[in-house]
Amino acid sequence: MKGSTSWRWLLKKQYFLFDGIVCGARMKQLPFMGVVCTVMLFIIYRTTNYQHQQTEMDSRSNPFYTSKYIGEDTTGLNSLPRGIIEAKSDLDLKPLWTTSSSKSQINVRSSSNLLAMPVGIKQKQNVNTIVQKFLPENFTIILFHYDGNVNGWSDLEWSREAVHIVAHNQTKWWFAKRFLHPAVVSIYDYIFLWDEDLGVNNFHPGRYLEIVKSEGLEISQPALDPNSTGIHHRITVRKRTKIFHSRRVYDYRGSTKCLDDSEGPPCTGFVEGMAPVFSKSAWQCAWHLIQNDLVHGWGMDIKLGYCAQGDPTKKVGVVDSEYVVHQSIQTLGGPSATKVSKLEDTKVKRHTVDVRSEIRRQSTIELQKFKERWERAVDEDKKWVDPFPLTRKRKLRRNNKRNFSKV
To answer: Which of 2, 66, 113, 134 is deepest in the core (most CB within 10 A)?
Structure first.
């Protein structure tokens, strides 16, 4: 009986000893498990963060896949596998069929920059001079014919390689809004949206782009020769000793005074509408700034700095070493038209329309509308923060004046 009791006691002792060992092992494992869990959580965090960064990079490299740029409703794309979606395009002409020679030509002729101009047949010689400057630099050329005359350009050798779009009496900004959507021109690094009346004897597009890239300019224009006839803002005039400039000028003439303490356009970080050059990112923003119904584009140049992808005093500039002559030849709309009585035999002029005056009057109306839309958009978008301190100060002063007048 005593032997049996001793045996049982020995078994219990072993059991408690084993249980204690297990419990102790478990206690010792707790810190180790905590380390393992921490490492796993860190790995999960890094993996999730990496995936998020990749998504952000994808959206920047191909932003037109997202609903923000494709449209409000993208549910129609859900039926397609993501890899088949082609959200980009270009304006390069493609052959109807390919041969070995055409394949090699396509590979060589793949353009990375775009020149787009509104043109009329009266400016054919000058446009030809401009295009001849750009063709050796492998530009895609697109001509917006506002006079309806396309056949008149067929004798030019490069005409068949250019893209021709016709719409009677439409402006550069009308064409750009409808045919230069960011998804269509996203393949191009730089978009030259020029007028047709620029003299380019002292301009080389290759050297110009080298300067733009080295200086990090997102929005730029070639400087204007001081002898140009259409100078509206002194900041665009060439400085002979500079390669480029983006800072203020000192102009005591006219309504705009650019003094020592002047900030913002048109005294700093400003380009005008006759020869702007946009980077891909800047054009993506600028296209959305163009108002669909305000076709003359007045007022938009003052706001282009918001599309500079950074500080406009550093990202917007005028290139002095490559400059042009603005000839200010206005042919859109034709010369002043005369409405004659239906009774042609009397040859009595009933009413004369000054086309240039009417266009200027309409442009002034559109300028006021653009200003009003900008102010309304700023007031309505409560989450929007003006990135430029000067305009924030102006808005604060304006609001203080409003509040004071109410009192």
So the answer is: 134
Which of 395, 212, 396 minimizes the C-alpha distance to 321? Answer: 212
- State which H helix or E strand residue 141 sits in: strand 139-145
Query: How many whole angstroms separate alpha carbon 102 and alpha carbon 32?
Result: 66
Question: In 327-405, at which residue ranges do the beta strands (DSSP E only) sit?
Answer: 337-340, 349-353
Stretch (H or E) spanning 245? strand 244-245
CA dihedral 371, 267, 256, 199 (to 10 degrees): -90
Average of pLDDT values for 169-177? 95
What pLDDT is stored for residue 164 in this prediction? Answer: 97
Which 8-state DSSP code applies to residue 19? H
State the Cα–Cα distance between residues 291 and 363, nearest whole angstrom: 13
Cα first-last separation, the chain? 107
* Of 61-70, 140-149, 336-345, highest mean pLDDT: 140-149
- What was the pLDDT predicted at 29? 59
pLDDT tens digits, one per residue of 28-87: 556 667 777 777 777 777 766 666 565 555 444 444 444 444 444 456 788 888 888 887
Please say whether the beta carbons of 221 and 238 come within 8 A. Answer: no
The per-residue DSSP string of 151-178 comes to: GGGTTSGGGGGSEEEE-TT--HHHHHHH
This prediction has a pTM of 0.73
Return the bridge partners of 278, or none: 191, 219
Angle, vertex CA 381, rays to CA 377 and CA 387, nearest 5: 90
Report the distance separating Cα 212 and Cα 225, nearest Å: 19
Amino acid identity at 2: K
The pLDDT-based confidence of 234 (bands split at 50, 70, 90) is confident
Residue 374, classified by CB atoms within 10 Å of its CB into exposed (0-12), middle (13-18) or buried (19+), is middle
Longest dimension (CA), the chain: 149
- Whether 233 has a pLDDT exceeding 60, the answer reads yes
User: In the numeric block, which tokens belong to residue 362?
Assistant: 């309409």
C-alpha distances out from residue 296 to 138, 293, 328, 367, Å: 30, 9, 16, 9
> Distance of CA 17 to CAs 4, 8, 30, 173, 388, Å?
20, 14, 20, 89, 75
- Structure tokens belonging to residue 112: 């990375």
Q: In whole angstroms, what is the distance from residue 89 CA to residue 305 CA?
A: 27
| Surface-to-core class of residue 295, CB atoms within 10 Å of its CB (0-12 exposed, 13-18 middle, 19+ buried) | buried
